[in-house]
């Protein structure tokens, strides 16, 4: 599975590494993806999500119920 956040939809970006001699080589910027398990009271079960660290902070702010609603609105399967 690729580096993909289920909440924010963050995916790898591409760019160049520039050396001291100014040669450019391709590189990939991956989001910081973590696996987190949350208890969801409305589903009455634990849910394991693949989230970026920014999404983990978002869940701390808005709550897991709102986050699950956003994920389901995007069409992601839980």
Automatic annotation (TrEMBL):
GO molecular function: structural constituent of ribosome
Domain of life: Bacteria
One Gene Ontology cellular component: ribonucleoprotein complex
Keywords, alphabetical: Ribonucleoprotein, Ribosomal protein
Gene3D superfamilies, per database record: Ribosomal protein L28/L24
GO biological process: translation
InterPro entries associated with the record: Ribosomal_bL28, Ribosomal_bL28/bL31-like_sf, Ribosomal_bL28_bact-type, Ribosomal_bL28_sf
Family: Belongs to the bacterial ribosomal protein bL28 family.
This protein's name: Large ribosomal subunit protein bL28
Organism annotation: Ruania alkalisoli
Gene: rpmB
């Amino acid at each position: 599975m690729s580096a993909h956040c289920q909440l924010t939809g963050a995916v790898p970006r591409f760019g160049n590494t520039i050396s001291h001699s100014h040669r450019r080589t391709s590189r990939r910027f991956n989001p910081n993806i973590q696996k987190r398990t949350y208890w969801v009271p409305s589903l009455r079960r634990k849910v394991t999500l693949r989230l970026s660290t920014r999404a983990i902070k978002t869940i701390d702010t808005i709550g897991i119920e709102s986050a699950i609603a956003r994920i389901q609105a995007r069409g992601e399967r839980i």
